[in-house]
Design goal:
Elements lengths: L2 H16 L2 H29 L3 H7 L11 H8 L3 H32 L5 H10 L5 H14 L7 H4 L7 H12 L4 H8 L4 H9 L4 H16 L3 H6 L8 H5 L10 H32 L4
Helix pairs in contact: 2-15, 4-15, 5-9, 5-12, 12-15
Main location: membrane
Pfam families: BPD_transp_1
Membrane topology: Multi-pass membrane protein
């Protein structure tokens, strides 16, 4: 087939896959409207962070501050012990990230490659825990950690992550199932143990799903307010999301300072998502879960 005819055939196939022009315009319009609905609250938060208290009252739904109050950021961070709370947030986020990646990868490898009796029903039991809402398990967990004298510490937030996450175990299992099983067979013939096979062969090949898991876990625990509100009772171990609640009082809320501080606390998640976006999509799509 000539090159021009082949190019026209490829272009025709592409147009057929994209659908009629009217459908594409409608889909694009809906996507733009949906994106505007999602991004508007974030833009309003930025605009409010730069307003004066009087500007908030008169600004309404406008996204353009009349007076630019840049000092809101410094005043917001000076209004509470930012650095100790940042340290607590980093501890209660980074340690669970490492723990969840390590344990979920190891368990996912075992479910994917080790043929053991009962592994199928056991994996179904693990997946079924996804159906349990967090509010159902929080009471027995609270009693357990109270008996262990761990209330008002970061341990109740960190310790459960050492046992992995059902969702991430599922992602790692699906990822390993799509890797060639011949890797396992060759390593077994060479006398490698299961742990050595996982650590030396499968783990180095897991970079996309490791990055996706780490970013999703980071975003989940960086914004973790529920567990912090349950287990932390004093200022010593407060985290940043819990500290934001201190801006609200019965005598009124300083909205510009609240929005400025919330913007600073949100920035790590936003930057991390845009930096690792390609790896998140690539890692999850490779598992076949997209």
């Amino acid at each position: 087939m000539p090159a021009d005819a082949k190019a026209r055939a490829v272009a025709g196939d592409g147009a057929a896959r994209r659908g009629p022009l009217g459908t594409r315009i409608l889909a694009l319009t809906l996507l733009v409207i949906g994106s505007a609905g999602f991004i508007y609250p974030f833009l309003w938060m930025i605009a409010t962070a730069l307003r004066t208290p009087e500007g908030v009252a008169h600004g309404g739904a406008s996204l353009w501050p009349v007076q630019w109050q840049w000092s809101n950021f410094a005043d917001g961070l000076d209004s509470f012990p930012f650095w100790p709370y940042l340290r607590n947030s980093l501890l209660s986020t980074l340690v669970p990230v490492v723990a969840v990646v390590f344990s979920s990868s190891l368990v996912g490898f075992a479910f994917a490659r080790i043929r053991a009796r009962g592994s199928g029903p056991l994996f179904a039991v693990v997946l079924s825990t996804l159906l349990l809402p967090q509010e159902v398990t929080i009471v027995p967990q609270f009693i357990l950690f109270k008996n262990l004298d761990m209330i008002d510490t970061l341990w109740p937030i960190i310790v459960p992550t050492f046992f992995g996450s059902a969702f991430f175990i599922f992602l790692f299992r699906q990822f390993y199932l799509r890797l060639p099983e011949a890797l396992t067979d060759a390593a077994l013939i060479d006398g490698a143990s299961w742990f050595r096979i996982w650590f030396s062969i499968y783990l180095p090949l897991s970079r996309p799903i490791i990055i996706a898991t780490a970013v999703l876990q980071f975003m989940s625990y960086w914004n973790n307010f529920f567990q912090a509100a349950i287990y932390l009772t004093t200022d010593r171990w407060k985290t940043l999301p819990l500290a934001l609640a201190g801006f609200q009082s019965v005598n009124g809320t300083d909205t510009p300072l609240l929005m400025a501080t919330a913007l600073v606390i949100t920035l790590p998640c936003v930057l991390l998502f845009f930096i690792a976006q390609r790896h998140i999509i690539g890692g999850i799509s490779f598992t076949g879960s997209k």
